[in-house]
Amino acid sequence: MKKTFTIFVYIFAISFFLFGCATETENTYIDLSPMEAKELIDNNADLIIIDVSPYYDQGHIPGAVHYYIGDGSLDDAIPTLDKDKTYLVYCHVDSVAIQGANKLIDAGFENVYRLEGNYSAWVEAGYPVETN
Fold this sequence. Notes:
Number of helices: 5
Shape: globular
Mean pLDDT: 87
Largest sheet: 5 strands, parallel
CATH class: Alpha Beta
CATH topology: Oxidized Rhodanese, domain 1
CATH superfamily: Rhodanese-like domain
Helix content: 40-55%
Low-confidence stretches: 5-24
């Protein structure tokens, strides 16, 4: 009986150590090259492309919606967005695109991508753009 109890205590201690030390992985966005972003756009009909820049009218990725981060449009839109969808965020400036992607992550969105190199990398890669 004493031996069984000792074995039980060891198993419990090891289980506690293994599972008690497990940490929850933090959700974050994923950077995509322009080529990877184009592939995501082409293969995901439900993808939502978000332009967070103030320059949307001067040029944007076709199909992108404009939620300018500077005037609070993105913050206003977040409660209306479907957390089950996939999002690609971009801007003309890295720090703003990162801020926009992080706002989605912080709000509980799990499928968030950021265009690495932003709009200029998209244009330099020769991919299509629209203007208003």
